[in-house]
Amino acid sequence: MKNQQLHERRSKVIAQGMGALYPLYVEKAENAHVWDVDGNKYIDFAAGIAVTNTGHSHPRITEAVKAQIENFSHTCAMVTPYESFVELAEKLTELAPGDTEKKAIFLTTGAEAVENAVKVARAHTGRSGVIAFKGGFHGRTNMTMGLTGKVAPYKAGFGPFPNEIFHAPYPNAFHGISTQDSLQALEDLFACDIEPSRVAAIIFEPVQGEGGFYQAPQDFAEAVRALCDKHGILLIADEIQTGFARTGKMFATEHIGIEPDLMTMAKGIAGGFPISAVVGKAHVIDSALPGGLGVLTLVLHLVVSRA
């Protein structure tokens, strides 16, 4: 069995920290199906952990990548920019919910998007504190692990994490946590741990992914938006898993009718290629000085937006 042989080879050379949830080894994939090296066909419900929104090897995306690589592969858009870089920003800022003028930055991974959203929030507000929620997942870099609201398996053994990060319970009727419970916990943080005038941002997932696929109640989202407005705190919507129509609308925040100050995007944005973005209110995102935000994303990934 080739699967077993490959898994034995993998175990000898790949760090155990990179787990293998299902030890089948893919030979080819098309749309919603994958075939392993032993010739078995599967329906792919994982989608690369919410990445391949358009299915595997979508012909329009494949052709876009081929066409781009024949022209050039990488220039660094901060050195010598190009049209598709601008075009993608135009499309995303138009699609982002809310009437406020938007701007965008591009990165490579979802964790980078979250890191840069926090940077922008701190630059804009001149504050340091960030509040996240229990059960939330925001990445595996040091800052984003700190924001993530689950110790096992993401944070165990990797601390210490950056300071000025605080957590509140996410509303979840299934676990007996009401909207009022969550809002009271935020007020308790303000009373006991950090005054609101030192909080730069509150970050939340409109639908928690790793937290168990729980949707933020509309009254909670509206109340947090109002709380941020009251105290001059920026609201960051982490749409890395939920973005690009995974919930039936282009972005999950559209279901709850709020406009975040900043949105993080990745995964489904490019149908399987590594690109991420932060899209936010123009006057907020422009708070970072030139050179403070950077992009290393390959142009062949950006051009997928043409498809």
Q: Quick one: biggest sheet?
A: 7 strands, mixed
Give the name of the CATH superfamily of the largest domain. Type I PLP-dependent aspartate aminotransferase-like (Major domain)
* Percent range for β-strand residues: 15-25%
Strand tally is: 12
Structural class designation: alpha/beta
Give me the strand/helix succession.
Answer: HEEEHHHEHEHEHEEEHEHEEHH
**Mean pLDDT level:** 93
Give Rg in angstroms: 20 Å
CATH architectural grouping of the largest domain: 3-Layer(aba) Sandwich
Shape: globular
Q: Identify the CATH class of the largest domain.
A: Alpha Beta
Strand order of the largest sheet: 4-12-11-10-7-5-6
Gap from first CA to last CA: 38 Å
Residue stretches low in confidence (pLDDT < 50, at least 5 long) are 299-307
How many helix segments? 11
- Helicity, in percent? 25-40%
CATH fold topology of the largest domain? Aspartate Aminotransferase, domain 2
Number of domains: 2
Pfam families: Aminotran_3
EC number: 2.6.1.19
Family: Belongs to the class-III pyridoxal-phosphate-dependent aminotransferase family.
Enzyme class: transferase
